[in-house]
Amino acid sequence: MTLPLVNPLLAIRHLRKSYAIPEGGRHLVVAVDHFDLAAGAEVGLRGESGSGKTTLLNLIAGILTPDAGTITLAEQPISALPEAARDRLRARTLGYIFQTFNLLPGYTCLENVLLGMSFGPGPDRAHAVGLLRRMGLEQRLNYYPRQLSTGQQQRVAVARALANRPRLVLADEPTGNLDHRNAAEALALIREICREHGAALLFVSHDREVLAQFPHVADLAQLRPPETIAGQPEGRA
Q1: Could you report the per-residue pLDDT of 112-145, keeping only the tens digit for each?
Q2: How far apart, in whole angstroms, are the C-alpha atoms of residue 211 and residue 46?
Q3: Which helix (H) or strand (E) holds 223?
Q4: Where are the domains of the chain?
Q5: Going by C-beta distance under 8 Å and a sequence separation of 6 or more, which residues neighbour residue 187?
Q6: Which CATH number fits domain 39-66+79-228: 3.30.300.30, 3.30.70.1120, 3.40.50.720, 3.40.50.300?
Q7: Where are the beta strands (DSSP E) in the chain?
């Protein structure tokens, strides 16, 4: 049994999340009894399609609320906070790289990053431009998402997630839509900038080559308590 960390940045205890299914009853999507993440740690999280990876990240981010259990982020019980307080905690503490990027189509690369910063300490144009330059997008600052390749859109999403210097970065398979070279470059950039700012990184992937880059890898299936596995209906998370 893994001993709990002293004052972890992220602490999950007895977490449960389920959804109603058409056949009746509920499908248990996430069941994690114990998971700690230290400040500055880099952890890969492995999980098959439909195993609840995205749902778990959304619970950590406070986008979803759990059915049971607690999530403590930076010593704040994010799972118990009212919505407005969750939003404030997320804005100042967490960066989220979404699998589908979630860029706003009516805004340029630079504007997407600046808008993301407006929910935290406030827009910092020089910092936003510097991040986009490091992402190789110096010549694309005023391009709209539709004018960018998939790899370039992903880099904008990475810059937006890192712009507020978060203490924790959640990455939901951000390299899944990229070719091998672009995936390797994107992963290296994410890890480099997280290290510079001392941010912890929880990187979700099912790609063994990607996960092999991490010093620590957790398997979502192994985090699931044995008593919750048998008899669970099929579902997608």
Answers
A1: 999 988 877 788 999 999 999 998 899 999 999 9
A2: 8
A3: helix 220-223
A4: 39-66+79-228
A5: 175, 203, 210, 213
A6: 3.40.50.300
A7: 10-20, 26-37, 42-46, 68-73, 76-77, 94-97, 168-172, 200-205, 216-219
Token pair 């100042």: residue: 92
User: What is the distance between the alpha carbons of residues 236 and 232, in angstroms, rounded to a whole number?
Assistant: 12
pLDDT, tens digit, 9 for 90 and up, residues 175-212:
777 778 878 888 888 999 899 989 999 999 888 888 99
pTM of the model: 0.87
Task: Output the CA–CA distances (angstroms, integers) from residue 170 to 90, 97, 190, in the order listed.
Answer: 11, 6, 11
- Structure tokens that stand for 86 in this block: 């969750």
C-alpha to C-alpha distance for 188 and 182, rounded to whole angstroms:
10
Bridge partners, 216 (sequence order) = 43
